Every structure is written in structure tokens, then in C-alpha cells.
Amino acid sequence: xxxxxxxxxxxxxxxxxxxxxxxxxxxxxxxxxxxxxxxxxxxxxxxxxxxxxxxxxxxxxxxxxxxxxxxxxxxxxxxxxxxxxxxxxxxxxxxxxxxxxxxxxxxxxxxxxxxxxxxxxxxxxxxxxxxxxxxxxxxxxxxxxxxxxxxxxxxxxxxxxxxxxxxxxxxxxxxxxxxxxxxxxxxxxxxxxxxxxxxxxxxxxxxxxxxxxxxxxxxxxxxxxxxxxxxxxxxxxxxxxxxxxxxxxxxxxxxxxxxxxxxxxxxxxxxxxxxxxxxxxxxxxxxxxxxxxxxxxxxxxxxxxxxxxxxxxxxxxxxxxxxxxxxxxxxxxxxxxxxxxxxxxxxxxxxxxxxxxxxxxxxxxxxxxxxxxxxxxxxxxxxxxxxxxxxxxxxxxxxxxxxx
Length: 404
Fold this sequence. Notes:
Layout: E1 2-9, E2 15-22, H1 25-34, E3 38-46, H2 64-79, H3 84-94, H4 98-112, H5 117-122, H6 130-142, H7 145-202, H8 208-242, H9 245-257, H10 261-282, H11 287-295, H12 301-308, H13 311-315, H14 320-325, H15 332-344, H16 347-403
Antiparallel strand pairs: 1-2, 1-3
Helix pairs in contact: 2-3, 2-7, 3-4, 6-7, 7-8, 7-10, 7-16, 9-10, 9-12, 10-11, 10-16, 15-16
């Protein structure tokens, strides 16, 4: 006999943590569901058995594209009417990812033992997240499993496309910046010292600008290893600090307040928030479990902290638009459309429109940023390189004027 700790949504819309004793995970889950609770998370805790568990090296994350392909194949086989055990066997045989194949084997054994597919996948949250398993569970409960899976596949496609657009728009400017820094560093550490040795052999007085540049490069050559070490240590310290709760919240807050970048980041995050909540509402999942799961997909601690303050108000019966408005972090456009969706009874559809609007706005901002950054980077690199070259050639120009 084992104890199971469940996070559930009550029929009144609140979130509770309940502990249930049962012969198996699925039996305990069915007990709570029979009482009207919506179960969307669970962790088994045995009383007697305290065996040492080795770390599962295969439980790492699997790429978003690999999961999308897996879900598309799963959807096609479900629509073909095959039994779930046969579907899992086919998917396991076809999949080339060893970690995913091992997980599917474990999921198959759990399903064969009587567990629901969503419950079997919920045991592996590092790969099959709460949003995914909650969507599958809602489809199992309503009898529209294929429709629920289809909505999630469409959601995955949109999120993946959004990430690809963001990555594609920023890749070229990042490459330009890296190339520019590499060229300038090469000039300062190799080309300028070569000219310095030549001028030293000439025993001539150098112009002031050339002397300053030669002095800087001299210090840079000696300090370059320490500079790289310092940058590495600073980056490591910042990374460690960001892993703390306070550090994550502060850095995420700085990001969303930055000019241009902050607006772009906020648009991306609220688009994801709206699209995730729209999918869960369309799938028939109650509001409180939907909000709790959706917050786990936002990915910004500062915004999550603000949005989480809306949960008690919604649980107390307040409208979603008013509750989000009191957080102070949600844009007015989103609040207006959410209020219209609540009043018209089409909240899921309206949230989808909100996500589409933010996606379009993000495309416009990305295009503008890319169009502005590329010439600025090129001009900046050209000016710096030209300045270095001219400063190093000043002594030669001076000598030529003296000879004349």
C-alpha cells in the first residue's frame, strides 16, 4: 500500500494538494475523480519501501520537433482506430530516438497494466509535461481523445513556428556582431602590434592617436587571457545567481523592461500564455487547473509572480479579465479581448485571437529590429576598422609629408 500526493482542482475551482492511500497510482486517481476532483499532477510516496533510486539518465528533454513528429504519428494512428497498445508498439518501433523509445516502452507497460495513457505519460514530466498530459486526460474524460490530441498538435506547430521565426530573425545579427568583434580583436592583437614593432625600429616620434592605440593594444595583449577568464567567471556567477529564485525574478524583470527587447519578449510570452490557455479552455479543462498549468509554460518568473496573484481572485468567483487586470502586468489589449470573450461565452476563441495579434506584432517588431540592426552593425564595424587602419597609417602619412 502506498501514499499518493495529488494536486487537484475542486468542483468549486480551487487548487488543493490531497494525499490518498491506494493499491496503485491509477486506483488512487480514480478514487479522486469519482469524487468530482480534476487530477492534473501526482507523486507516489511509499511508506515502507525506501529503496535507493539511481538517477535516470534517459529522462532528459527530447527536442520539440521530435515530440511534434511523435504526436503527429500518434494522432494518425488514433484516427485509424488502432488499439492503444498496438499504437505504442508501432511508435516505439518507428522512433529513432533511444530515450523516447525507452520511455514509450515504460508507458506501454503501464497502459498494459491498466493505467490511462495520460496517467502513464504523467510519470515522465521531463518529456511529457503537465500541459500535454492534462490535454490528453481531458480528451480521455470527454471521449474526444483524437480532437484533444489534434488541438495539442496544432498548438505545438504554432509555438514551434513562433520560436523558429524568433531564432531566424536574430541569428544573422548575432553572427554579424560575433564576426565584427572577431575582426576588431584580430586587428588589435595581431595587426597593430606588427605595425608597432616596425615603428619602433624606425625610432621616430609617433602621432598622439597612434601612441594611444599602441598603448591600449599593449595592455590588451598582456591582459587578454585575464579578460577572458574574468568574463567567464562573471558569466558563471551570473548564471548561478539566476538559478536562485530572487535572481531569476530580478533578471526576468529586467528583460521585460528593456526597450524594444522587453516589448518583443513580453509579446512572445503573452502570446504563449494566451494560446496555451485557449487550447485548455477549448479542450474543456476547468479554469483553475487551466491557469495553474498555463503559468508553468510562461517561462518568465517576474510575469508568473504577477499572474499568479490573479488565481485567488478567479477561485473566489471573480472574472478572468478583472483578476488579470489587478496584477498590473497584463497589457490592456489582452484584458479588453478577454473581457469580450467572457461576456460572449467564447473565451477560448478570443484568447486565440489575442495570440494571433501578438504573433503578428512580434513579426513586425522582429522585421524592424533586424532591418535596423544589420546596417548599424556593418557601419559600426566599418568605422572602427577604418579608424584603426587610419591611426596606424598616420606615421607613414607624416613621414611622407616630411620627405616632400
